Amino acid sequence: MNEQKKKKLLPIKIVFAEESDYNDREYHFGTWDPFQNVNSEFRERLVGDVDKVRRYFSEAFRTWKDVPGIAKVRLLPEALAKTYRPNSIFGRRTCPIVGCDSLGQLMISVNSSGLDKLAQRIERDESDTAVRQLSTINSIEAHTSNDALRINSIDDDRRTAKLKLFRHDGGRRDQAIDSAASEIFKSMDGVNFTEGKYGKNRIVQLSGLKSNQALELSRFPGTHRISNFPYFHIVRTSHRIHGSLRANAISPPEKDDLAIVLLIDTGTDPSNRQLQAWVVERYDRVPIDQQNNFHGSFVAGLLANGKRLNHEDPEFPSCGVRIIDVVAVDKTDKISEFDLINVIRDAVSKYPQAKVANLSLSIENEFCQDEEFSDFGIALDNIAIENDIRFAITTGNSEKYYSWPRVNQNGEDRIAPPADSVYSMVTGSIAHLDSHTTSVKRGEPSPFTRCGPSAGFLASPQIVHFGGNTDVQGEFTQTGILSTDGFGNLAEDVGVSFANPSNAALLATAEKELRVNEDSNALLMSRAFIYHSAFLSRIPTQSDFKYYGFGKPADIDEILHCEQSSATIVMDVSVSNGKRFSKREFPIPQCLVVDGKLKCEILMTLLYEPPTDHRFGLEYCRLNVDASLGTIRIDDNGKEGFKREVNPIPKWRTEGYEKQLIEEGFKWSPLKAYYRKLSRFDPGIEWEFRLDISRRDGFVFEQEQKICTLITFRDPNGIANVYDEMVQEMNNRAWNAQDLKIQSEQRIRI
Questions:
Q1: Which pLDDT score, from 0 to 100, does residue 157 have?
Q2: Most buried residue, 202, 497, 561, 600, by CB count within 10 Å?
């Protein structure tokens, strides 16, 4: 690092919570009027719905006496908010709510006695609460065999069936389903069944299943869905060879304590000595004679030294990472979801030293759904939490090649699972080069990259990096990414797969730098720092956010530091339900006051990892956290009030029906950003920072939620001494703040 760079980069300040920062939060739910007339005709219609559910399950309840079924309760569109949820109607004494199928559709656990009690409740309960809650209901119907049977075809020789069982209570009802299902499997001639490693989801692989047997299973009340297992594949394009890899094209690592990335791919070329200098372990899950190491070698080269391979382009990361090479995919370029999950679970368990995994695979013929998170994305979240690791994954490659801007795609370029993994970092691709034949210009989304949002309308991709550029036919010459192939050559190729390793290397390096002790919140903070870095480089717009996310992050030193004209502070705090975190007298550097007015940019990035529940579909994320940076104002009556001044970006809806808040508001997104450019603002008003938590209806939350918020004040002209004054203002207020500890700098001090 040269002297000029040393002067430029300053330590980010981290602020720790104090007891006085927490206050009880007041909730004002109030009462509300019924949404429709709950008269005798309405009650009779709902009782009729319950009778239909009873008749549908009558034979199943006789066959499997202890196995519950599932019924779907459709709510009125205007009654979707948790305030209106009919949880006293559908409770433990009747048919309890155990999940959600889609927006406005609850799933309830039903058996004979519960349905009888539910019908009586609907027919007789005249209480105000019952009337209001009944008024939210549109219909009640059974989850039927037609709902469960989603299998396209059954080929006894090649494909296996995927059976997903309902989960009700985690106890007696689930045990009854599992016991009955096991007996059914044993009674099916020629069918082999294997349990999947999907966490709390109960998924079984069935081989040798016949069509009539699939139909029989679909009628089992414990069956959620029968489908084909999706396959993940390696996207191979017509890559170009530029000759043999020159000596020291991938220079060996300068030190042996670099961060480590778990590379789950096709394996690296064992004879490539330059590449193997970066590989610290190899885990062959595929026999050597069944391997094709092109894709894995190409990704590995970018993890190790992508900047050097790409002509020392300063926009590529300078931080290389060591590699644990997991050979998961054979030369067919495909692996089933079931097998891939097994490989991932075994690998992360075998190599706990890796805190980041690169997964540059695409799913076949499947896209993220608005109202349902994929089983694979959910499984990755489960693996991440259980093993203290995070995945760097991609949006997937489109089969078509688009120009920019894109218009009227109608979801054809929607991101693919597992880009709906909530705890993962999802990368899209932008072009780093262009020519007169390419479809897009440098810095624009690559012609093949896919767009968000994720399931539940969450923000995805979060960030982008360089993955190459093509023409409308997918051809490229000197506009692709350079790395090494599986035969020791320097090769050129394109794909979101090759944007991913740049961000994976940044994430692994940031995580290692921030893990100064075992109590460090490094996995959460490292992602937050990378997202905030991208945000600082580019303010996203409403129209392109679903392609760029927050943009491309800077290099590692800039991610972990700030400049004199731009002060960044980190709020690394935990908040429990029912509490509000607030920091008053927020410091405002006076150098930003020009001609009597506050003139600056304020950027804020919020990230947290919420508790999740796979049973609740769109409501998978069970907590919401919102940040507010605003001013304290006194009205004419002397009453104090708070006004948000830094607004969500891209602009999202904050008022309206629940459906609108979810689809247009990022309400439950664990990643949020806020921005405001002030030019004529009164500098004499007191500022306050707040964090508020809300939870899904029926969700009991007794722990504390870890939250990382980065807040940057910067001079748009890049000249004011913002950093020094921000530090001085925090000291004057006796804030519990200190320099962010970075592992490499700690070693230098020692």
A1: 45
A2: 497
